[in-house]
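Quick start: read one record
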Amino acid sequence: MRSQGWTALILDTNGNGKRDDYVEPNEPVDPTKDKRIAAAFYGVAVNPNDGTVWGSVLGFPGYVIRLDPGTNPPATALAEVFEPPLPGYGPRGMDIDRRGVVWTPLSSGHIASFERKKCKGPLNGPTVTGKHCPEGWTLYPFPGPQLANVTETGSAEASYYTWVDQFDTLGLGRDVPIATGNGNESLLALVNSNFVNLRVPYPLGFYTKWMDGRIDDPDTGWKGRGLWATVSTRAPFHMEGGKGTTSKVVKFQLRPDPLAR
């Protein structure tokens, strides 16, 4: 078996296109060296187009990070860090679509996309420490009211994770990002910049942290497709039904019309 390996997260702040000696996170940028950042991935996904690894970093303002292993990792591994622009902040669990677009829910009550190809400035050099590509981000406020006395866009929705339906397992289309609607008791699919709210009406209190899709039979239309999620709360007895209520697996299917059989 091969070792999995490990790498520090190194920014190419001297701009020469390769990994060199670096300064530590608590040291200022040195124009002759690279810089290490201290970060841990929360959500992780691989860009299917180039094999780079992307991860989300919790906190305020939080980041998404692109890690290119290079030809001889970890000696060649280089990172890029991107901070969401306000009013967005706090990426959580993320995924990536077939075009290489990153999708993540934000603690500010948005789902956000990040497209690296939209960046107008350099992606290495002494200024690439997070704030250098606000144009790569697009923020979509989640459904629901905003918190009291908060005037910025967003929502009180506190989504935990986003999963991208790369292969149209549900029927809303390829590459549709679907966020866990933990405040909406639903799944929140973003289709053509509009949300489709897949609410679970019974039992009340649906709370999930993840989902996955499956196509069992592509020749049977909607019947052969489905999206699966679990009730992920540690306290299912607080759901409708009360004491004795256990966790559940929920299957979502999308009929072409309400009477389809």
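The chain has no helices and 18 strands.
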